[in-house]
Every structure is written in C-alpha cells, then in structure tokens.
Amino acid sequence: MSTPPTGRIEKTQAGLAIAIERQFPAAIEDVWASITDPERMTRWIGTWRGTPGVGRTVDFWMTAEGDGPPEPALIQECDAPRRLRVQTSVGEDSWMLAVTLDEAEGITTLHFTQDVTASTTVGDTGPGWEYYLDRLVATFSDEAFADWEDYYPAQEAHWLDALAQATAPDAAS
Fold first, then answer.
1. Domain range spanning residue 43?
2. Which of 2, 47, 119, 130 has a Cα at 20 to 30 A from 159?
3. What is the CA radius of gyration of the chain?
C-alpha cells in the first residue's frame, strides 16, 4: 500500500524548497515539544545532544538511519513555540530546514520546508520528509507508523514532477 504525497515544491527567497504541512489536534506548545525535546523526538525521527541556542550546533542522530555518526545541526533561528530553522550537513553537503507552527481553534498546523540545493535528491528527500512527518502525526494518535516502502519509491514520481514543474521555463514568473 502506498501513502499519497501531500507536499510540493515552492519558490522562496532562497530559491526552491520542499514544502509539507501537517495538522495536529493539539496545542502549539505540545507540537513544539515534539519537534524540539530530544526524548519526544526519539518517537518519530531521532534525538540530539548539546547545548541548544541560536548560533550553536548540536549533534543530531536520525533513529531510522542506523548507528552512524551524528550530523551537526546549527540552530539558525528559534522563536519558541512558533519557528525553528536549522542547518544540517553531511560532509560537504548542507540543507536549511525550517518549521513554522500556527494554532487556531485547538488545531496546530506545522509547515515544514527544506531548501532544494544542488545536492538535494528531491525524488527520495520529499518522500523521506512525508514519512517522518507522518510518523510525527502518528505520535499524537493511536495510529501505527506506516512503512518506508509505502513512501518510496511510490512518491518519487510526484516529487520529481513537482521539481520539473517548479523549474520549467514558464514557471519562472
């Protein structure tokens, strides 16, 4: 069974970004804790160690990625409980990730973006973030986590098409 993709490629001041939204029947502070508290993060993506703060780097480990070394995560912006922007890197490659939270009538909406760079493989990165964000949603309910195979390669064509549309000559306007 495949999980339908919901994300898109959007234009930003920096260029292009993977963009995905999810909604939670929870207070903004609760969703914020799920994306920033290292113990709560282990439920859906990974954990971090270090001394957090704007301009500081923490070590981040992704749970599903095995026992590899941590990835450095430089905190670029932190406006609790509304906005977090982090630069992650592996070797020479780096990516800017941002999460913005908004709450209205007991529903918190999470807007996630990752800048598309020359090293971004959108065909698997897009499905990867759909997968992890759905895992985050599942931590707020009794739902079981979907399998990675429900996302990739099933969503690859969607993301490659979204990138092609965003970079087509008539998309420049």
1. 8-167
2. 47
3. 16
